[in-house]
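Quick one, T. Sequence first:
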Amino acid sequence: MNIETAKQQMLELPQVDLGEQHLFADGMYCRHGVLPAGSLIVGHIHKKTAINVLATGSMLIKLNMEDDWEQVNAPYINSTGAGVRKIIYTLEDCVFMNIFRTDETSLDKLYDECVYEEIGTKPYLIAKEIKDKELLCL
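Structure tokens:
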């Protein structure tokens, strides 16, 4: 299964509110939220480098479609460059953050600057109840 097929299937499943919060400080933007256990998350493709922080919890993550799933446990910090679309499956409730360098403070303009948004999607596509375990075979 490819990422586009998985995204379409996920859009038909219940979506989860991450309770996202947005913080700005001296040319930095931090988006963070709580990712519930058992969620499959397909992020947008980033236009620029981001620092990613898993503050609490445990997850499986792919940074590239051809990669195997890697389990990471909090505390975990990495950076990802432009063109990366993270795929995450949460093993526990997780607090996760993306941090970008930007002087922008308008969320609409910031998303234009930092991610390739796709029509009809939010920053994350989330399926709390994964009915088709085939999705984990991405």
